[in-house]
Amino acid sequence: MSEVSVIVHADAGMLAQAVAARLAVRLIDAQAERGEASVVLTGGTIAAAVYRALRDSPARDAVDWGRVDVWWGDERFVPHDDPDRNELQAREALLDALPLDPARVHPMPPSDGPDGPDPEAAAARYADELSRAAKPGTAALPHFDLLLLGVGEDGHVASVFPEHPVAYEDRPVAAVRGAPKPPPVRLTLTLPAINTAEEVWLIASGTGKASAVRLALSGAGPVQVPAAGVRGVERTLWLLDRPAASEIGPRFRSLR
Ligand SMILES: O=C1O[C@H](COP(=O)(O)O)[C@@H](O)[C@H](O)[C@H]1O
Questions:
Q1: Strand 186-189, strand 74-76: pairing
Q2: How many domains does the chain contain in total?
Q3: Residue 165 CB partners (closer than 8 Å, separation 6+)
């Protein structure tokens, strides 16, 4: 299990720029090592700012986007053109500007997709898509070089919510009904699936996230605070702005 490290940036703008730069480098490094790269995207406000910062950065052209697989860590189970979809937000903020191979972009199914409004069937379909991309005969999941997570004010990550049955789930993909944050029906990678990623970065901005960040970094249980249960295989990195880091002690603070 990897060590947890924390980097704190001055404000949300600096955080977004720094994460965007780091993201480009991570994909470049993975491509240098493996010939390709895979990233799991998150939804959320700060994630959208990171995507826009990467779209507007000249460094983005150093990535060979045709050899990047794009997956999602969670999705709101709404129609394909609903602005609530994490996919739509990522496409508008970044993906539409990149020369990606469409066959390597893997959105989670919408509620008007092949399984209609059946989130359990849609979750099974996504699990199947993931397992088809895994190395034959090895795992249920492909290799993830990097998995990005936002952090909810209640400590949720992806759509794994505190005290919800999904927090106990060990299948890789789950349907979520009755989510405390709208919309109530969602699809998500579960904590065991998230924790197969080589690197996981948890990104949080603003005072509203400060208490969740403190709890997650101070030994809370993963059912009570799902962010506390996140561990990348090689690296677990918290990327914060000062307001989000305002309740953690100096032991964790490396201010940049
Ligand atoms: O609903 C969701 O919320 C979280 C956090 O979003 P934020 O706007 O508070 O940063 C996000 O990470 C997740 O992907 C999304 O579905």
A1: antiparallel
A2: 1
A3: none
Instruction: Give one DSSP letter per residue of 146-173, joined into a string.
Output: EEEEE--TTS-BTTB-TTSGGGG--SSE
Residue range of the domain that includes 183: 4-252
* CA-CA-CA-CA torsion sign (193, 72, 142, 31): negative
Tell whether omega for the bond before 183 is within 30 degrees of 0, i.e. cis: yes
Report CA Rg, the chain.
17
**HSE (side-chain half, CA atoms, 13 Å) at 148:** 30
User: What pLDDT is stored for residue 249 in this prediction?
Assistant: 82
Grade residue 135 by pLDDT with cuts at 50, 70 and 90: confident
pLDDT (average), residues 98-120? 98
Q: Report the CATH number at residue 170.
A: 3.40.50.1360
Cα–Cα dist 241/256, whole Å:
9
ipTM comes to: 0.98
Say how far apart CA 229 and CA 219 lie, in whole Å. 9
How confident is the model over 144-160, as pLDDT tens digits? Answer: 999 999 999 999 999 99
What distance in angstroms lies between residue 125's CA and the mean position of ligand 1's atoms? 23
Determine contact, residues 27/63, Cβ cutoff 8 Å: yes
**Ligand 1, CB within 6 Å, residue ranges:** 42-46, 74, 86, 150, 152, 158-159, 181
Cβ neighbours of 212 (radius 10 Å): 26
Is 61 in contact with 12 (CB distance < 8 Å)?
no
> Which of 50, 85, 166, 181 maximizes ligand 1 atoms within 8 Å of its Cβ, making it the mutation to test the pocket?
181
| Per-residue tokens: 45 | 């406000």
Per the prediction, the chain carries an average pLDDT of: 96
